[in-house]
C-alpha cells in the first residue's frame, strides 16, 4: 500500500515532490532561513508540502516526502497545524516543565511527525500527538520556540533511520524554518546506559550536545553550576585513584584489567575517567557491529541486597555446543537491561519476594505454583501489582540468590507455573525421566563462568565501568551526588542566533510588551518572555513600525489579538536615530487580561516549594500538602516512585508548626522528652477534636496516613 499522499496527488493529477533526506535544509535548499518562523512555515507548507485529503480532529495535515540516499525507501514527514484556541489542550506541558511557564500562549502549534515504519502507508491516527513510538515528533509554536518530543532510531525499532540521522534532519529543519529555541528532554539510552551520564562525563555535554544543545534546566533543584561541577568532578577522577578506591570490590580485578588494557592501548595517554571513556567510545564507534554485541552476560556490581553465585546453568545442548551462549542469567543483570520505569533495586527486591513465596510453598507444591498463586502470595509483601506482573513476566531461566527460577506451561491445564531449584541441587541433578521432560527442561552440571578478556567487547567494558565507577563508586558520597545531579539534568536547549548579520536590506528589532501592562504577580511569573522579532524596510516610518508590531503580536499570541500600539519607548518621531538589531519596549492597550489563554503555565494558582530548592514544576512526580497546599517532590519526601500516594499528606513544615502550637497550648497535658523529637498524646479528643487519633506525630518527618 503506498503512502497516502500518492493517492491524494493522483486524484489531483500531479506528481508529488520528493526531497533528499540527507541534503534537505543545506545551503538554503529548498528554502533559505530569511525571517521569522511564523512566516517561514507558511512558505514551507505552500512550496514544499502537499495538503492531505483528511484532517486530524479538524486540524489540517500536510505531507512532504523524502528519499534516503542509501536505502530504497520514501520517508513521509507530516506537519499538523494545531489551532490553540480550538484545541482541547491549549497549554504546553513541555513549556511548563522546561521553565517557560511565563511564555504567552501562542495561537498555533506545528507538529512535525515521522511515524513508525509500519505506519508510513497509513493516515495519522487521531491520538497521534500522544504516541511515543514515532520515529520523529517535534513541536514548534508559531513564535519559534519548540520542543523535540521523541526520537526513535534503530534502537527504537526503525529499520531505515538511525538516531543520528533523525536529529541531524530535525536540526536542519529548525534552522531552515527560523526556529529560535528548541528544547529536548534527554532520556536517550544505549541499552542500559544513560547517554546523558556517559557522554556528559566523556565529552562534557549530553548526546544531543553535538548539535548544540546545552543545559536548560535541572530537576530536583539542580542548577547549571551544579551540573557543570558534577561533570568536572566525575571527568577529572584520576584512574590511579579509581584503581585504589575499588580495591575492595568483588569485581576490582576485572575493572583494573579493563583500565590497564585501554591505557596500554593508548600508550599511556589516559589519565582521567574522561580520557578513558572518550577513548573507549571512539574505539566502539569504529568497531564492527558483530563485536558490539555482548557474547556473555554483563558483569555485575556489588550490592549488599543480593547474593550471587559464579555457577551458571546450561542445558546439555549448550555444553555440547560451545558456540551457544548461556541460557541462564542473574536476575540483577536482567533487571539492569530492562529499561523499566521502576528502579533496578525495586525489581530485584520484588524478585526476591517472589522467590521466598516459591520457597515457602515448595514442600506443598513440588511441581511449582501457578502465576496467580505466586502473585497473590507476593502481594502480601508488595502492594504494587503492576510491579509484580512486570517482574513475573521477566522471570524465566534466571538466578535469584541461590536458586534458579523457571516457568513452564502445564500440558494439560495450559496454565503457567513457576518453579525453583537450589543451585547446589542443580549441580547434582541427574537426567530427568522422559515423561518429566515435557514439564521441565533437563539440567546438567555446568561449567564455571569465565568473563571475556578486556577489550574483547567494548560495550561490556563500558557497562562494567558505568555500573561500578559512575553509578556505584565505593565510599564516596560526593561522587554519587555528582552522578545523581547529572542524571537529574534532563532538559537541554538549543538557541539559534536572532539576527541575520548578512541581511542589510531591512531593519530588525526585538519588541516586547512593557511589564507594567501585565500583572505578573497575579500570573505568578517573575519576568515576561523574550520579545518578538519584527522586520521592516529601511525606509519605514515610525507609523510603519507600529503597524508591523501590531500585526506581529496579533498574529502570534491569544491575549494580544486586539492589541494596539500607543508608544514605542525607544523611538520617538525619527527612525533614523534607532539602530537595527536593538530591543524595543512597547506600550499600548487591547490586552485581554481576562483570557484564560495568557501564559503556558495555565490559570492554576499553585506553589512549588521543595527542600531541593525547586520552585516550579520540573516534570517530576510531586505531592501536595493537605494543609498548606504547597507541592513537593515525592522523592524528596521519601516516597518511592513505585509507591502509591498516601490519601493524606502533611509536610514537615506544617508538622513542626502544629507541634509548636500544641507545645504552647497543651503544655500541662504533654511531656516533651529532650532526647526524643516527639510528643505523646493523652487523648484523641485533645489532639483532633472530634476526629479520631491516628498516631504519633514526628515533627521532623512528613505525616503520611
From TrEMBL:
Keywords: Metal-binding, Transcription, Transcription regulation, Zinc, Zinc-finger. The keyword Zinc-finger applies. Residues 609-655 form the Zinc finger PHD-type domain. GO terms for molecular function: zinc ion binding. InterPro entries: MS1-like_ubiquitin, WHD_PTC1, Zinc_finger_PHD-type_CS, Znf_MS1-like, Znf_PHD, Znf_PHD-finger. Pfam families: PHD, Ubiquitin_At1g33420, WHD_plant_repro. The keyword Transmembrane helix does not apply. This is Zinc finger PHD-finger.
Amino acid at each position: 500500500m503506498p503512502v497516502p499522499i500518492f493517492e491524494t496527488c493522483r486524484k489531483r493529477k500531479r506528481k508529488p515532490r520528493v526531497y533528499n533526506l540527507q541534503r534537505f535544509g543545506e545551503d538554503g535548499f529548498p528554502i533559505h532561513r530569511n525571517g521569522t518562523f511564523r512566516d517561514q512555515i507558511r512558505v514551507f507548507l505552500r512550496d514544499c508540502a502537499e495538503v492531505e485529503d483528511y484532517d486530524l480532529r479538524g486540524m489540517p495535515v500536510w505531507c512532504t516526502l523524502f528519499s534516503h540516499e542509501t536505502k530504497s525507501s520514501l520517508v513521509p514527514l507530516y506537519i499538523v497545524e494545531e489551532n490553540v484556541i480550538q484545541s482541547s489542550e491549549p497549554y504546553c506541558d513541555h513549556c511548563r516543565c522546561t521553565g517557560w511557564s511565563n511564555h504567552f500562549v501562542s495561537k498555533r502549534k506545528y507538529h512535525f511527525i515521522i511515524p513508525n515504519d509500519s505506519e508510513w502507508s497509513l493516515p495519522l491516527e487521531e491520538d497521534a500527538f500522544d504516541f511515543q513510538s514515532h520515529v520523529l515528533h517535534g513541536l514548534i509554536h508559531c513564535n519559534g520556540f519548540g520542543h523535540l518530543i521523541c526520537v526513535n532510531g534503530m534502537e527504537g525499532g526503525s529499520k531505515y533511520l538511525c538516531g543520528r540521522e533523525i536529529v541531524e534532519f530535525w536540526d536542519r529543519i529548525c534552522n531552515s524554518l527560523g526556529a529560535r529555541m528548541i528544547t529536548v528532554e534527554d532520556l536517550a539510552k544505549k541499552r542500559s546506559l544513560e547517554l546523558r551520564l556517559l557522554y556528559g562525563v566523556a565529552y562534557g555535554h549530553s548526546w544531543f550536545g553535538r548539535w548544540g544543545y546545552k543545559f536548560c534546566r535541572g530537576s530536583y533543584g539542580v542548577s547549571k553550576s551544579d551540573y557543570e561541577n558534577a561533570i568536572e568532578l566525575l571527568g577529572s577522577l584520576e584512574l590511579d585513584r579509581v584503581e585504589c578506591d575499588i580495591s575492595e570490590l568483588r569485581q576490582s580485578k576485572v575493572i583494573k584489567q579493563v583500565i590497564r588494557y585501554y591505557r596500554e592501548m593508548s600508550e599511556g595517554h589516559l589519565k582521567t575517567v574522561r580520557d578513558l571513556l572518550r577513548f573507549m567510545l571512539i574505539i566502539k564507534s569504529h568497531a564492527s557491529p558483530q563485536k558490539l554485541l555482548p557474547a556473555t552476560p554483563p558483569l555485575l556490581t556489588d550490592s549488599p541486597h543480593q547474593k550471587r553465585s559464579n555457577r551458571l546453568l546450561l542445558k546439555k545442548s549448550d555444553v555440547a555446543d560451545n558456540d551457544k551462549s548461556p541460557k541462564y542469567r542473574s536476575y540483577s543483570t536482567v533487571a539492569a537491561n530492562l529499561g523499566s520505569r521502576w528502579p533496578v533495586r525495586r525489581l530485584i527486591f520484588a524478585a526476591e519476594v517472589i522467590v521466598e513465596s516459591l520457597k515457602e510453598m515448595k514442600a506443598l507444591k513440588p511441581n511449582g505454583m501457578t502465576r496467580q498463586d505466586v502473585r497473590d502470595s507476593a502481594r502480601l509483601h508488595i502492594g504494587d501489582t503492576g510491579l509484580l506482573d512486570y517482574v513475573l513476566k521477566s522471570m524465566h531461566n534466571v538466578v535469584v540468590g541461590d536458586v534458579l527460577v523457571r516457568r513452564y506451561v502445564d500440558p494439560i491445564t495450559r496454565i503457567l507455573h513457576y518453579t525453583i531449584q537450589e543451585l547446589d541441587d542443580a549441580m547434582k541433578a541427574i537426567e530427568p525421566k522422559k515423561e518429566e521432560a515435557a514439564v521441565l527442561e533437563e539440567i546438567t552440571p555446568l561449567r564455571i563462568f569465565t568473563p571475556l578478556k578486556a577489550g574483547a567487547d567494548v560495550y561490556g567494558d563500558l557497562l562494567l565501568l558505568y555500573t561500578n565507577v559512575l553509578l556505584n563508586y565505593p565510599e564516596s558520597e560526593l561522587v554519587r551526588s555528582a552522578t545523581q545531579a547529572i542524571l537529574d539534568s534532563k532538559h537541554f536547549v538549543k538557541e539559534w542566533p536572532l539576527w541575520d548579520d548578512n541581511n542589510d536590506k531591512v531593519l530588525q528589532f526585538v519588541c516586547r510588551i512593557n511589564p507594567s501592562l501585565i500583572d505578573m504577580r497575579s500570573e505568578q511569573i517573575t519576568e515576561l518572555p523574550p520579545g518578538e522579532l519584527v522586520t521592516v524596510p529601511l525606509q519605514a516610518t515610525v507609523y510603519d513600525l507600529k503597524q508591523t508590531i501590531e500585526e506581529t503580536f496579533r498574529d502570534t499570541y491569544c491575549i494580544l489579538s486586539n492589541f494596539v500600539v500607543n508608544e514605542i519607548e525607544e523611538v520617538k518621531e525619527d527612525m533614523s536615530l534607532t539602530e537595527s538589531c536593538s530591543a524595543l519596549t512597547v506600550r499600548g492597550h487591547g490586552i485581554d487580561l481576562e483570557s484564560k489563554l495568557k501564559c503556558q503555565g495555565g490559570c492554576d494558582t499553585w506553589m512549588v516549594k521543595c527542600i531541593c530548592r525547586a520552585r516550579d514544576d520540573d516534570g517530576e512526580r510531586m505531592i501536595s500538602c493537605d494543609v498548606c497546599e504547597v507541592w513537593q517532590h515525592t522523592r524528596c519526601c521519601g516516597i518511592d516512585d513505585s509507591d502509591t500516594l498516601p490519601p493524606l499528606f502533611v509536610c514537615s513544615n506544617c508538622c513542626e508548626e502544629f507541634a509548636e502550637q500544641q507545645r504552647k497550648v497543651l503544655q500541662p497535658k504533654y511531656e516533651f522528652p529532650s532526647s526524643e523529637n516527639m510528643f505523646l498524646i493523652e487523648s484523641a479528643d485533645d489532639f483532633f477534636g472530634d476526629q479520631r487519633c491516628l498516631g504519633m506525630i514526628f515533627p521532623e518527618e512528613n505525616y503520611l496516613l
